[in-house]
Amino acid sequence: MTTPAATTPFSDRLPAPVRDETAQVARLLGELQGRVDWSAVIATGTPWVDAVRRQPAPFWAMESLLREYPISSAEGLALMRLAEALLRVPDTETALALTADQLGRADFSSHGQDGQPHPMLSGLASQAIHLSKKLLPEDGEDMHGGGLLQRLGAKTVVAATVRAIQLLGRQFVLGQSIAEALTRADANRREHALIRHSFDMLGEGARTDADALHYGRAYADAIRAIAAKGRPARPEDGDGISIKLSALDARYEPAQFATVTERLMPRLLDLVNAAAAANINLTIDAEESERLELSLAVLDLLAAHVAATYPQWQGLGLAVQAYQTRAPEVIDEVTAIARRHGLRFMVRLVKGAYWDGEIKRAQELGLAGYPVWTDKRHTDLSYLACAQRLLAAPEIYPQFATHNAGTIAAILEMAKAAHPQGTPFELQRLHGMGEGIYREVMRRPDAPPLRIYAPVGEHRDLLAYLVRRLLENGANSSFVHQLADEAVTPQMLLASPLRAPSRSVLPMPLQLFGAARANSKGVDLAAERERLPLLAALGVPLPAAPTEASVEGAAAAMDALHAAQRGWNATPLAERCAVLLRAGEALERRTGEFAGLLAQEGGKTLGDAVAEIREAVDFCRYYAEQAAARLAPQALPGPTGEKNALRLHGRGVFVCISPWNFPLAIFAGQVVAALVAGNTVAAKPAEQTPRTAQRFVELLHGAGLPRAALTLVCGPGETVGAALVAHRRCAGVCFTGSTPVAKAINRTLAQSDGPIVPLIAETGGLNAMLVDSSALPEQVVDAVVQSAFRSAGQRCSALRLLCLHDSVADKVLEMVAGAMAELVCGDPADAAQSWAVDVGPVIDAEAHAGLSRHIARLEREARLIARTPLPARLTGTHIAPVAFELKSIGELREELFGPVLHVVRWRGAVDALVDEVNALGYGLTLGVHTRIDDRAVRIAERARVGNVYVNRNMIGAVVGVQPFGGEGMSGTGPKAGGPHYLYRFCGEQTVTVNTAAAGGNAALLAGGGQ
Ligand SMILES: Cc1cc2nc3c(=O)[nH]c(=O)nc-3n(C[C@H](O)[C@H](O)[C@H](O)COP(=O)(O)OP(=O)(O)OC[C@H]3O[C@@H](n4cnc5c(N)ncnc54)[C@H](O)[C@@H]3O)c2cc1C
């Protein structure tokens, strides 16, 4: 079989995701004008709602559970969080600690409908809580020290909780195998002949190719099993399958389009061929918005294949999310693809399951707006507008997936109005959800077929994923949640979405920090229109490097800066702040140009380059904001007849010495902080990256900074840097780099006979990540790979030491190895490959040699876990990401700046592990992965580090959000990008004026002593 070639380049088919929401909603309203009679919708839907409330769905149905224990309640949340994690925990100690932690937060015994505890949950769980509160040991205590009775009691609690969760699992999962699921499907069909299923062998997306192959086999087996039940006359008549492309390829990402065509397509074609041969429905699930264009490209390739090989098959399908602002255009594009290839598609219209994730991503990336609607009613409206399009397209068999009674009733009305003689379509619901409403809907004589989306697989593998998805449906705004809440009347529940657009209450991503400071603008690399200008900038040749200064030149610069400092310090604070703000604006406008510089001079990937530019912009805005708020003179209280004021001023000439790993962000952060405080600055960039520094200095001067206030002094640290620090006019040093150099600077400053000069040092770290067995391995692997290997491991914050709980270490390491094999090493400065590159070169030959020596030693002394393959064509200073297992933490001796990960296993008390990490003497960043909330808090309190990250990666600190900097051998503080930073650049003066000196206290006398 041949894979269809990706003849058309992968390019934007859809409009930009971020558009004016009000205007778009107005457009959709116009399209629906006169098409939906909402009073008829209310008339249809109200009896359903009433009936469901009179006769609730079965006990374990999602809506019943939500009624009993809403997710907004401590009990609901505890239950969900246990369901998410407990079954995967292999060791008793952690299972006990997790149960105690979560159940201890809830009170099932007094909670429930009408104040009545739920018979089953309170029977199991509330008993468990009481037991757990009494019997479970505190985290970190020796589990084996307690009495036998205590331990037995505690284990019973856990066993009972596990049983409760397994029961809950049955609600989320139709069968633990496809055979079991098919049997239950038959039982469903016996209840109603119009019921069909779409099975999904889902779980977490694949992180490794082994995972992807495993999912591929599971899908293929499922198709075979469905086919064995008999061939339906039409795909819509029988059961089918849903597949997630991110499960079939660990790199199902737009940046990896080549891999998608070479590796995913053949796998996909196998499944499509099997589904076509069996004449069943195969639907591609909808995932995150950055994959939307990619999914359309894949659909187009698939359609070409189907048209050539199975033109009569009408079962190929795609899910479309109505919450996407581009949903109507997606429908148009899908219809156009079907028409072009002469096919009919089955299109499942959903609202969308990743709304909060989409909002978070847009905020994190600093996008101009959101790719999804920000008001729930807009999503509902968009759903109807999309439905209208689907019902009008003969190339589409519409499948309406929703649990919302209003939406269902509207669809029935719209279908009847569009096609009074009847039109083929079906409704869909998730297994375990919407049972009550659909019980009523399916009683209608004109009820269309109903397809149940049915997850299949072992509870242990599926629950984490399903719970996260179901929490979305349990959100306060969701229909299922509101149906369970008797306080919400049927009128409220069935309120029309056909009304004027409302203003979002969500701040736009760029207004995340309120009125005081704009968030830096990011780039959505998944959008071609935003990506291409950056790639074009890679073709611009690097400028000549600035001339290096001599030692004498450095000294002369210091004298000149000293002479200029008084004048700059006298510049009004508002003007100093304005310079920073103008610089931030200019830098943001020149993102493409600086990204090109960073990729070429610093070896940065596009994503890292954009993130670094944003950080520099944030520094400019944040320090301007902080300076305005904190550095202005303050009046102080005192006795009458006296005026007291505190004033801050620049200390003099600050020497700012920055590293090559953040040649823009750290350089800019140091320099603008020192400047805004009233200092003049000698800025010495790293020898490897002077051009980026020079361009930023020019930008600052262009923004109105007097030339005399800032001088770029390039040259080697040992000579030029040392001369600057030792100069008698040096009034402060701000340094980021290695601990030995920081110490050398400190010694130089200490030897000076002049005033005692402050040193702000940010140095390295031996950063650890502690993972217990309650953590989700997929999340851990994502965090490990990003933290250890992004930026080729050349971040101060990068993960160096992964501490895995013994009970999960083998599994996690296998997955880490698989994920490392998926990394793409390459040259980010090469426009042809740049977007796809995950790991670029290390900074220079010297770094390469040092890392190679260290790796050679590890090869002798430690166990190799995995090494990313390095393409032979790479000629630069590339080091393949590599991971080694050490026997103990003590074997880790020095900080190493590159893509080298060390791993140790741990067991026993977590406090002892934290102490061992503390004993390394560094204290920069720490990652923690656990579902035991108390444990995370406890670790953070005990760890002597500057930045703790829980259940996420441990890099990419954001200015003003995660102020950055460590303690111990990792730095002096204060934290960069934090509220205490600027003070360290200032001298302070109080001025006390005796206002009664000339006799008489006018103010006091006028006030009469009041
Ligand atoms: C058969 C089936 C298959 C599915 N397949 C997929 C799939 O492939 N991909 C996928 O993403 N989802 C899929 N889903 C999940 C589906 O998206 C959810 O079930 C859906 O979100 C719930 O919609 P509802 O109409 O039942 O509920 P409703 O409560 O009416 O709507 C909930 C929707 O509103 C959105 N929302 C909540 N707050 C806001 C807000 N402030 N602004 C804007 N929107 C908001 C939610 O994100 C959600 O999309 C599928 C569902 C079914 C039934």
Provide a brief overview of the structure.
The protein has 1010 residues and is α/β, with parallel strands linked by helices. The protein is globular, with a radius of gyration of 32 Å. The relative contact order is 0.09.
Describe it:
By secondary structure, this protein is α/β, with parallel strands linked by helices. It has 35 helices and 25 strands. The strands form 5 sheets. It has an 8-stranded parallel β-barrel with strand order 1-2-3-4-5-6-7-8, surrounded by 5 helices. Strands 18-19-20-17-16-22-23 form a 7-stranded mixed sheet, sandwiched between helices. A 5-stranded parallel sheet has the order 13-12-11-14-15, sandwiched between helices. The longest helix has 25 residues, at 148-172. The protein is globular and about 95 Å long. The N and C termini lie far apart (95 Å). Mean pLDDT is 91; it is low at 1-9 and 134-149. Bound molecules: flavin-adenine dinucleotide. The site of flavin-adenine dinucleotide (FAD) has 33 residues, from β4, β5, α15, β7 and α18.
